[in-house]
Amino acid sequence: MKSIKTLIISLAGYLLLSLPSAAQPAPCAPGPVPPDPQNKEKLESARIAYFTSRMDLTPDEAAKFWPVYKEYRKAMDEARRANRGEFHELRRMTEEGNASEVNMKKQLMDYIDGCKKDDELERLYLDEFLKILPVEKVALMYVAEEDFRIKMIKMWKKPGMEKEPKPDAR
């Protein structure tokens, strides 16, 4: 078991270190670079290795956990993608400043309803995770998610972007 953990940690380290160089666009490539499916696979492999190690999943727990977690991530991604459109419409309305109060209120309600769907999914899947893992490991999953997200942000952050932009002084 110890050698499996060492292997997983080594693999995660290798993948995490190789992602920044693989994620860099070609120097002369104009415009945004389309996502590379290979990088997505590396990211998912790194996530699996990191979570498995951090949560100390047994092979039996991992076999039950990963299918449910992938289903959870897919459902959350779909809900957030759908709500992103509501947010962009809300942003457009505020920037243009010509929306009626009724339309603005309706858009706010649509956006908040989308946020509620995220909460409902979180609660639904929390129950599913608790059916297959002890509560300590479920809690570690949420901690691992946030830690992994922060590591990825730091890894991909460009030099000089550490400071938050200052709001326009008007």
Please name the defining characteristics of this protein.
single chain, 170 residues, mainly alpha, 2 domains, globular, signal, Periplasmic heavy metal sensor
Can you tell me the residue ranges where pLDDT is under 50 for at least 5 consecutive residues? 6-34
Q: What oligomerization state is this entry in?
A: single chain
What is the count of distinct domains?
A: 2
Using only C-alpha atoms, the radius of gyration works out to: 20 Å
Largest sheet: none
Share of β-strand residues: under 5%
**DSSP, total strands:** 0
From the spread of the alpha carbons, the general shape counts as globular
> What is the overall number of helices?
5
* Separation of the first and last Cα atoms: 60 Å
Order of helices and strands: HHHHH
- Relative helix content: over 70%
Structural class: mainly alpha
Signal peptide: 1-25
Organism: Candidatus Coprenecus avistercoris
Keywords: Signal
Protein name: Periplasmic heavy metal sensor
Written account of the structure:
- This is Periplasmic heavy metal sensor.
- Residues 1-25 form the signal peptide.
- It comes from Candidatus Coprenecus avistercoris.
- Keywords: Signal.
- With 170 residues, the protein is mainly α.
- The chain folds into 2 domains: 1-22 and 37-57 and 146-156, no CATH class; 65-132.
- The protein has helices at residues 2-23, 37-55, 59-96, 101-132, 135-156.
- Helix 2 (37-55) crosses helix 5 and helix 3 (59-96) runs antiparallel to helix 4 (101-132).
- The termini are far apart.
- The model is unreliable at 6-34 (pLDDT under 50).
